[in-house]
Design goal:
Layout: H1 2-11, E1 17-22, E2 27-28, E3 33-40, E4 55-57, E5 59-63, E6 68-71, E7 82-90, E8 95-99, E9 102-106, E10 112-113, H2 120-132, H3 135-150, H4 155-172, H5 174-196, H6 198-209, H7 213-226, H8 231-248, H9 253-270, H10 277-284, H11 294-301, H12 306-321, E11 323-324, H13 327-336, H14 351-354, H15 367-392, H16 398-403, H17 407-428, H18 434-446, H19 449-468, H20 471-477, H21 486-501, H22 504-522, H23 531-555, H24 560-568, H25 573-600, H26 605-623, E12 625-626
Parallel strand pairs: 2-10
Antiparallel strand pairs: 1-3, 3-7, 4-8, 5-6, 5-7, 8-9, 11-12
Helix pairs in contact: 2-3, 3-4, 3-19, 4-19, 5-17, 5-18, 5-19, 6-8, 6-15, 7-8, 7-9, 7-12, 8-9, 8-24, 9-12, 9-23, 9-24, 9-25, 10-11, 10-22, 12-25, 12-26, 15-17, 17-18, 19-24, 20-21, 21-22, 21-23, 21-25, 22-23, 23-25, 25-26
Length: 630
């Protein structure tokens, strides 16, 4: 026994004192935080062999939604000299951590921001965007207000941190950097297509097939559904491909951006195989029962995806009937008069690219455009498969392979691969020489600068809200509905968070771990609910997270997919948001009233889905007005 004790003492090194750090450097209202406690030796170095637990005082486990706290008396066992205590509140006077003679103290910043301050930056950005129609100014203002809240309302410090910390962090994030490079490279490819004349030639071919606004819009809808595997690729490919064609048919840029934006995320979110599937499965896997898989749960959720299905149907109804209402009707009447952009609009693409013409004396062919576009689609498809195989092996199922692929890397391969195919083919066909090709590619990249700036600002305000101001957790803390209302209220909650943060993925990551267990607990055996009703509430709640996130994105000027849709369609970004929002609100309202509220009382989606589509079709037919003959 003495030998064992001696060995244990050798393995478990003592600590001189403890250091405590918080994941938040200040507090938003009384939201819970995480603490990292580190065992340190006398020299100030981490003691990796420290083991055992430590006693705590002044620390409370938080159940913020119920307004209850319980004292936390001890930590978990240390690992590598550290331990993290999750979801806690610390007394204003501070906390102590001790184990034997070693101890440490930590006092939180006593600055407590009112909870509603956490929604102030996105609220200001959205309002300024709608009032001034200047997305850059509006987003920068939101970012600056967020940094003012973080840095104790010091105007100079906040301004400096915007530039040297938060903007840099948003642009340097590997995923964000991939999207920026993907955007620029795809813009370069579009520049080559335009300069070689391939774009104009493709428009001529398409014009023979679709000669009316109706057929042009239906073609846009179909194309959006075909590119179902990734929303980013969908936005940039479909918009850039169809824009010259829809301009010729006098379809407004706002309408094209709406068609692109309102098919991209909705189809990707419900596709059986897409880059979204793996992310969603990872979030819901803990909720799958012992005799079922996360994918089975995903399939059961699909009929409850009211917003996505209603939105895709609504786009088709608008296209087939050639009827509109609200700001979109005004835009379409203007386009019918030959003006696809309003006077004073600031399209998200430089005119040098959209008005680029091939050199004189060259005879362009449609293959100059279609071969690079098809190559991008093929590279994405093949890349997703090979990347997924590297992650999970060739023996896995196709959906698992695609779900585990590195989609950001694949998009980079596709954009640069498409650029190289476009360049080599244009030179080989002698429509461009090498110098003209390089100039065209650079011009295409330059045309994306405004969009890139807006994307970086949008990501920055989203990160400030998510990582610093805790916008999502604060909104959730105000939320405690009865079981039957959980799906509808969850949809609204997710819409608010996505509107504020501009990210459907972040919204899902924030809400599913809370709303999912809440729905399961509220519909358990002791709830007294009919099992069919309980199952309906659970599935509808999970689907409402996804639907609300996509809906909030469609209404948010700081959403990355909304920005990319404006960019690829060369639309004024704020005009796109203003014209799309009423249509999104109609579909969102239908999702709540006809979908999620009845689902909370056990009504089958096999009844509510057709009813919702019938109601939306009737609204377009009897409330919408034709801008021109289709």
């Amino acid at each position: 026994m003495q030998i064992l004790i001696a060995v244990a003492m050798l393995l478990c090194a003592p600590a001189d004192h403890f250091e405590v750090e918080s994941t938040q450097n200040y507090r938003v209202a009384d939201l819970p935080i995480s603490l990292t406690i580190t065992a340190v030796d006398a020299a100030g170095e981490v003691t990796p062999n420290y083991c055992g637990a430590a006693d705590l005082a002044g620390v409370y486990q938080s159940t913020a939604a119920q307004g209850e706290v319980e004292p936390v008396a001890t930590t978990e066992v240390f690992s590598e000299g550290k331990v993290t205590v999750e979801n806690v509140l610390v007394a204003e006077g501070g906390m102590t951590v001790s184990s034997g003679p070693a101890s440490g103290k930590w006092k939180p910043d006593v600055r407590r921001l009112p909870g509603w301050f956490s929604i102030l930056p996105p609220l200001v950005a959205i309002l300024l965007a709608l009032v001034t129609r200047q997305a850059l100014i509006a987003l920068f203002s939101g970012v600056y207000i967020g940094t003012l809240l973080i840095y104790s309302f010091n105007p100079l410090t906040a301004l400096l941190r915007v530039f040297d910390t938060h903007l840099v962090a948003a642009a340097a994030d590997p995923f964000h950097a991939s999207i920026l490079l993907f955007t620029m490279a795809l813009g370069g490819m579009v520049g080559i297509l335009a300069k070689s004349g391939g774009t104009n030639a493709l428009v001529e071919v398409l014009s023979r097939r679709a000669r009316s606004k109706r057929s042009g819009m239906v073609m846009g809808w179909l194309t959006g559904l075909v590119v179902f595997f990734d929303d980013y690729a969908n936005c940039l490919l479909v918009g850039n491909t169809l824009r010259p064609f829809t301009d010729k048919l006098s379809i407004s840029r706002e309408k094209l951006a709406y068609i692109v934006d309102s098919t991209a995320a909705p189809i990707t979110s419900v596709a059986l195989i897409s880059t979204w599937v793996g992310y969603q499965l990872g979030l819901i896997e803990d909720l799958a029962g012992p005799n079922s898989s996360a994918y089975d749960l995903f399939l059961n959720m699909l009929p409850y995806s009211f917003y996505s299905f209603f939105t895709m149907f609504f786009v088709l109804a608008i296209a087939v009937t050639c009827r509109d209402f609200g700001p979109m009707l005004t835009a379409e009447k203007r386009a019918a008069a030959g003006q696809v952009l309003r006077d004073g609009a600031s399209p998200m693409m430089d005119k040098e690219l959209t008005e680029m013409q091939p050199p004189e004396g060259r005879t362009p062919h449609w293959s100059l455009a279609i071969i690079p576009i098809v190559s991008v689609i093929l590279i994405v498809a093949i890349g997703l498969y090979t990347s997924g195989v590297q992650a999970v092996g060739a023996s896995a199922g196709l959906r698992e392979i695609i779900a585990n692929a590195n989609s950001y890397a694949v998009l980079l391969w596709a954009a640069f691969g498409g650029s190289m195919v476009a360049a080599v083919y244009a030179v080989a066909k002698r429509n461009l020489n090498i110098s003209e090709t390089v100039d065209a590619w650079v011009t295409g990249c330059k045309a994306m600068v405004i969009a890139v700036l807006i994307l970086v600002l949008a990501w920055t305000i989203g990160e400030i809200c998510k990582d610093y101001l805790q916008t999502g957790p604060w909104v959730i803390s105000q939320f405690s509905p009865s079981p039957q209302w959980i799906p509808a209220m969850t949809f609204v909650l997710c819409a608010v968070i996505a509107l504020a943060t501009g990210s459907s993925f972040s919204t899902m990551a924030i809400v599913i771990p809370i709303a999912g267990p809440m729905a399961w607990a509220a519909t358990g055996d002791t709830s007294g609910l009919d099992p069919v009703v309980g199952e309906s509430i659970r599935l509808a709640t999970l689907s409402s997270v996804l639907g609300g996130a996509v809906f909030g994105d469609h209404c948010s000027p700081i959403s990355d997919t909304t920005i990319m849709s404006s960019m690829s369609c060369a639309s004024d970004h704020i005009d796109h948001v203003r014209t799309q929002a009423p249509y999104a609100l109609v579909c969102g309202g239908a999702a709540i009233l006809i979908g999620y509220i009845p689902a909370g009382f056990g009504v089958s989606p096999l009844i509510t889905l057709p009813l919702g589509m019938l109601a939306l079709g009737a609204l377009v037919r009897f409330y919408g007005k034709p801008s021109t003959e289709g």
